[in-house]
Design a protein that fits this description.
Blueprint lengths: L25 E10 L4 E8 L12 E6 L3 E6 L10 E6 L3 H8 L5 E8 L6 H4 L8 E7 L3 H16 L5 E7 L8 H9 L3 E6 L9 E2 L16 E6 L2 H14 L6 E4 L15 E2 L2 E2 H4 L2 E3 L4 H5 L5
Parallel strand pairs: 7-8, 7-11, 8-9, 9-10, 11-12
Antiparallel strand pairs: 1-2, 1-6, 2-5, 3-4, 3-6, 12-15, 13-14
Bound molecules: flavin-adenine dinucleotide (FAD) and FE2/S2 (inorganic) cluster.
């Protein structure tokens, strides 16, 4: 995670990354496909060449749907799992639709992992002794990049380090991601609350925006940090609600999305003010210049 940095000149030499050219996708095969909702699918991918991809929670890959295009997608799996790499994708346009439509056995191109990921040192502390509470706030498919962090946080919590509070906002009950898993998180000690914009007859939970859950959520705002991912407007309101409750702006981390192309800090497509999101983010602290930058529309 960074605080301030100037954007380097674009289009210099392509940064080296191991033996493979960083712009060349590695072929992976879809080994499992889970339909999460009517518009969201999780793909489990295995490299044709074998070997596991190691990543940190909050990092993303560039996924190619061959013949259609390439998009940024966060990794939604458990970093300690070591199995197929997992991506949870909402079908919103041509490339995401092509990826969501792939069947088991299909090939996908993968470049990555890229980006910095969530900073969880508030939980571990430099000496591994801190006990801060963590508030995870997700809107819609924003829960996907947060899932690896929740899984890591639950392991830390089992070692007695602070509370894990997970607040989820969804458009409707049928759009809630990872439904069965939420109870597992609860039994492992997390405080998980879900709210929906529009309830149906079966819904017994909260109705309203996710920020409405923050004021009564069980955490100490003066000794907690927060991980937030969702639509940008939701993240802005969430950050404000956390600030209102007393959390310091540097303790609030947001994962941002911009149009990505190279993913390696070379093309400049993902620039936001002084930052390149693929290189300096996608996770940023709300403090510093982020609040001001988020008020501006993406070009
Ligand atoms: C770092 C990062 C991580 C991401 N992780 C995930 C993830 O885990 N799961 C997932 O489903 N999506 C994720 N996305 C968003 C995903 O990259 C976009 O949905 C995708 O680029 C859309 O491409 P498309 O060709 O399907 O649709 P397009 O035709 O390009 O766009 C369809 C609609 O989506 C909007 N859109 C396009 N790109 C983005 C974007 N980057 N952010 C927000 N809106 C966009 C367009 O304005 C348009 O309204 C991530 C994006 C970034 C930058
Ligand atoms: S600089 Fe190319 S996507 Fe970030």
């Amino acid at each position: 995670m960074v605080t301030e940095k100037s954007v380097e000149p674009f289009r210099g030499p392509i940064p080296e990354s191991g033996s493979r050219h960083p712009l060349l996708p590695t072929p992976y095969r879809v080994v499992k496909r889970v339909v999460e909702t009517d518009t969201v699918v999780t793909l489990f991918l295995e490299a044709l060449e074998g070997g596991n991809l190691t990543f940190r929670p909050g990092q993303f890959n560039m996924l190619t749907a061959f013949g259609v295009g390439e998009i940024a997608v966060s990794i939604s799996g458990d970093p300690l799992d070591g199995g197929p790499i997992r991506h949870t994708i909402a079908s919103v346009g041509a490339v995401s639709h092509a990826l969501c439509s792939l069947r088991v056995g299909s090939l996908v191109g993968v470049r990555g992992p890229f980006g910095n990921g969530w900073d969880l040192t508030g939980v571990t502390g430099m000496a591994g002794s801190a006990t801060q509470d963590v508030v995870v706030v997700a809107g819609g498919v924003g829960l996907a990049p947060l899932r690896p962090a929740v899984l890591e946080l639950l392991k830390m919590k089992e070692e007695g380090r602070g509370r894990v509070v997970v607040l989820i906002g969804s458009r409707s009950p049928d759009q809630v991601l990872f439904k069965e898993e939420l109870d597992v998180w609860r039994t492992r000690g997390a405080h998980v609350e879900v709210t929906v914009d529009r309830a149906d007859a079966s819904w017994r939970g909260s109705v309203g925006v996710v920020t409405s859950l923050i004021s009564s959520a069980p955490f100490d705002p003066h000794d907690a940090f927060s991980l937030v991912c969702g639509p940008e407007v939701m993240m802005r309101f969430t950050a404000r609600a956390l600030l209102d409750k007393g959390m310091h702006e540097d303790k609030i981390q947001l994962s941002l999305e911009r149009n990505m192309q190279c993913g390696i800090g070379w093309c400049g497509h993902c620039q936001l003010g002084p930052y390149l999101l693929c290189r300096d983010g996608p996770v940023f602290p709300y403090g510093g210049r982020l609040a001001e930058l988020l008020a501006k529309r993406e070009l």
